[in-house]
Amino acid sequence: MQQRLRANHVGAMVYYPIPLHVQPCFEHLGHRVGEFPEAEAASREVLSLPIYPEMPANHAEVVVRQLKAAFGQARSQSEVRRAA
Known about the structure:
Number of domains: 1
Shape: elongated
CATH architecture: Alpha-Beta Complex
Distance between the termini: 19 Å
Radius of gyration: 16 Å
């Protein structure tokens, strides 16, 4: 999904590719990979989209249009995972 959006000039990104509990600044807490599986899954799967209050409407429409197109492509290729 991220590659499809980027290929269409929509800057989707993962804000926290390393889960918070294993980042160096929290190392002193002693948490390890596997302790928070939902946080780890989110760090791999949740994309942040370029949407913000000051964004011009025509730019937001481009983001929405490209997101719909990317979901359509992914769905046709069975890449979209539905939340349980």
